[in-house]
Protein 1
Amino acid sequence: MASEGLTTSTSPRDDAAVFLTSVPELMEWGLHGAPLPRRHALRWRLGALVAFFLLWSLAGALVEWARPFNPLFLPTPSVVIGAIVALARKGQLWIHVGATLERVAVGFTTSAVAAVVLGLLAGQVRAVRNVLEPVVELLRPVPPLAMLPLFIVWIGIGEGSKVGFITYATFFPMFVTTVHGVTQIDGRLLRAAQSLGARPRQLFFRVILPAALPDVLTGLRLGVALSFFVIVISEFVGAESGLGYLINDGRNFFLVPQMLGAAMLLGLLGYAGNGLVRGVERRVLRWQQAQ
């Protein structure tokens, strides 16, 4: 009777059994554990967004009430969304979004093709790597903003300078990650494939390219994010459309809701671009262990 309220204790044998049953799970999922179910992960993400907008709304309301500075400089999310909806109703928003997406698509695609092709070549051929790497490492630390005036001088203030600027700025991370992916391939894999009679073409498509794909796709994700980062800078100069133009126009006329709204749209477009690359990554890298 006295033992009814006591908790039961486990024996050392039971503890050992629990540990041994957890070893296969540790081997399968690592120290971070099994991935969260998709619905559960979606709830966390939506919850984080809701919390962010609630904090933003609270900060805007406090500024409106206490007035430590002009509330115009920190509008609430409802005001920002209202400004974007107003632009959409006038038909102006889609022109600016389309212009930005077109520039990003052309510049990023051109850069990605050049970076991946040259990166794969430099990763396999040491002579090519010895030629390209010094030039890349010389130009890579130079901030892209420092090169924008040169692009304007060389190409003009039209679409060519904006696309070229995006191509230049996004080339380096994609090239470096591609070279790293190829050079980090285990030499035993290559020798094993060659010993089994793999020809150079088969060796490239069956061994080298699949092994380098994780790093290549990581570089593409970095390139997508950087594309939306530098497009704002290029659209500040000589542009008559684009989300960067909206931000610059809002700065000139103190249209803070327009500035924040255009920035939010850039973030959403960048998030969608990253999600697109992640979708491709999940499809082509099914052989990888889930993280």
Note: The first helix runs from residue 12 to 29.
Protein 2
Amino acid sequence: MSKSAIYARCSTAEQFPENQIMALRELAQRNGNSVIAEYVDSGQSGIKREREQLNAMINDAKRGKFQTLYVAGIDRLSRSVKDLIEVVETLNSFNVQIVFQREGVDTRTAMGQFFLTVMGSLYQMERSVMIERINAGIARAKSQGKKMGRPSKINSSLVSSVKLLREKGVSIRDIARTCSIGVGTTYSILREEFSLAN
């Protein structure tokens, strides 16, 4: 009888994980597995990657404490495609089989491997769409004349101070240190290669 573990998660403190745990115990028993550990994160969001019991479960998997992990559903393990893939791949690297009860997915089967491939593709698509949206937003802002990046700290008072210090023979490094700006910025001010902040 191979050793197995259960992972359960509830989003709010008012929810109780007992129903998840009882169903998973029965499933493990039907599959001929003995449950040697149960990990429960109560009142934890599925988006949050750092969860105490999730981390404990992964650490025990690394030590070979169990060979199969039972989870009520994919969303119980993670609501983020990226984090889900990372957790599943980490557990797979420790030779841990994952069984998602609701979806009927077993990561050791051909269908389970297909599921992982699809999830990986979805993550890549999600990432590509996000990057595309960011780039489109930047392009739109630039076309509207908006400046990107951090606002410039250069103003007329700073320019006057830098020029005055330089006229008095102060070194570039000392000017930069005194005015709390970079050496490159100091050179740019002296060469007047900048536009004053509003």
Note: Residues 3-106 form a domain with the Rossmann fold fold (CATH 3.40.50.1390).
Protein 3
Amino acid sequence: MRWQASLLLLALLGSAAGQQESHGQRGQGRGQGRGQGRGLARMLEEPGRASWQKPDEVVAALKIREGEIIADIGAGTGYFTRRFAAHAGKIYAVDVSSSLLEQIEALKLPNVVPVLAAPDDPKLPQAGVDTIFFCDVLHHIENRPAYYEKLRAALKPGGRVVVIDFHKRPLPVGPPPAEKLAEEEVIEEFRKSGFRLDRQHDWLEHQYFLEFRPR
């Protein structure tokens, strides 16, 4: 599994040429220098991202309930975490980068719990989460079927897994097509892991937006 901070950074915001050159050279360790962490933060929070990521529209579409518990996996700088915090009861901000989690902690959001994950385990409480959220992260996870089993164990009855990721075609943002997961592939993987597609949103320009629930 490779969704370290530098993976997420380049997947989100690198230019197509820059991504193709460096997508396979991203950092593998958890530790990040503070200077590097600040650079990653600037890129992840680049103002132009909102024009295609549409974060406020995404949050509205999720219809978050008061008291809902959300796990934001690959939380990065808290781009979605801080938005969820305004609506949900508790958010687990999950990442393998301790330096990025420090930046989330610095936000001092009372209902956000930073979680330093292992590469193969999100470290979520058993049957403790209503919504597990991935944005531009799932295509970095290796051995996804085993990972999906951990997601299932973390979900409360009636819980869901939300996946937003890049369409498998050339785009001005995201990794090269060879490193992406096609929407149909993701749906089939979840189906084989005992999930069903519950909702499908089609209004993001560069990404698919799917909601799954256990069968």
Note: The chain has a mean pLDDT of 85.
